[in-house]
Amino acid sequence: MLSCLKLPSLRALKIGATAGVVAVAATAVVLVSALPTRAAEPPIKIGLGMSLTGPLAANGKSALLAMQIWAADVNAKGGLLGRQVKLVYYDNRSNASTVPGIYTKLLDVDKVNLVVSGYATNMIAPAMPVVMERGKVFISLFGLAVNKQFHYPKYFSMLPTGPQAEESFTKGFFDIAMAQKPKPKTVAIVGAAADFSENAMRGALANAKTAGLKVVYDQTYPPSTTDFDPVVQAIQATNPDLVVICSYPLDTDGMVRAMNELGFTPNMIGGGMVGLQSPSIQTQLGPELNGIVNFNFWLPEKTMEFPGVTKLIKQYQAKAASEGIDPLGYYMAPWAYADMQVLDDAIEATKSLNDTKLADYMRKATFHTVVGNVKFAADGEWATSRVLQVQFHGIVGYGLEQFRNASNIETILTPSKYKTGNVIYPYSKAKSPTSEKSAATGR
């Protein structure tokens, strides 16, 4: 009986076994392909309100471009925590009243992971109550002493004013003036009735008191002021040796024009004028800038060639022309990029987007950025002040190229570590083309 059974051949057994393996493999493929694939990680969203229209737009647009360059650089390297970075931003129209609503929308509707500020003190302060309520880390861009009234532990300032933010803004101006012979005796202090100007004016008053100067004028004007002749005439009537002006771009332009039209020549003038760093205003005022000593934060000088900053400026300038914005980027670009570098480094170091973890790290770390090393101190201000005081000189005509080569027409006077020349004093002498170059270079 057994001999009558027909057993499958060895070849048939091999074929059957192979077919079975193929069938199982095919089934496995079907099962695997049927499983849901893991979705790509969503981007890390960073939200902000920025002045893209209105009187602060020139600097706001420049800052935003630098932030976009940072995002592109980071994404090209694989992003942060293995995720791409996305900037979510809205135009605050240079209007402080829009700011709280923008940050509320960013956090509640857009569900951004993190927030940073837009440009300028007047646009930063209104966001503080919103970010404080949500416990968010908040890096501000050019906010003068914003946290002095809040003492918020998760606030960090990208402005090199140091622990005494209000005073340091004009301290260099007073130090230069008091080193002259004979020493000045009187000072006039003026600015707009707005957050930035009032903060800077308080610092100037403190510096004047320390220097033993008599304050002969201390007044604000409405931010809506357009005719500055009466303001300058009132200051001129007090015959001050020094004039400290704490102004925003439009009133800076108006003040400089009024001073020149009225022939007002105190011994030294400037200090805290926002706008004189911008090519759009520089090329409008041209030679009227000669002699003014004013703050700045960075210039393309050998003394300030920090790692990565030259590359950034080249990237920025290559894009700025087609964007129709500040073609040079010396004022805003390095700082807006460094602002994001600090956040970048904190995220990578903590491997987290948790605001508390980020803030704890940021309070202790030293950050290596395109504006040099940054370390924060009390109230999130810089541990060390590095505000420049720079004098304009030798400007001829209104062409842009002379401002591109800043060393020819702008001299860094202080701090000494970054100094590129000596002050031309008094102001009337600085307006004389025959003495400008030799005095500024110290030759």
In the CATH scheme, what's the topology name of the largest domain? Rossmann fold
Mean of all residue-level pLDDT scores? 91
Rg over CA atoms, rounded to whole Å, is 29 Å
Q: DSSP helix count? A: 16
The total strand number stands at 14
* Backbone structural class: alpha/beta
Structural account:
The chain has a seven-stranded mixed β-sheet. Strands 2-1-3-4-5 form a five-stranded parallel β-sheet, sandwiched between helices. The protein has two domains: 44-160 and 305-376, Rossmann fold; 165-296 and 389-441, 3-Layer(aba) Sandwich (Rossmann fold). The termini are far apart. The protein has helices spanning 10-34, 57-76, 99-108, 121-124, 128-134, 165-178, 195-211, 229-236, 249-261, 279-285, 309-323, 333-350, 355-364, 401-404, 427-430, 433-441, and strands at 44-50, 85-91, 114-119, 138-141, 155-158, 186-192, 214-221, 242-247, 268-273, 293-296, 366-369, 372-375, 388-392, 410-414. Mean pLDDT is 91; it is low at 1-38 and 435-439. Strand 11 (366-369) and strand 12 form a beta hairpin. With 443 residues, the protein is of the alpha/beta class. 42% of the residues lie in helices and 17% in strands. It is globular, with a radius of gyration of 29 Å.
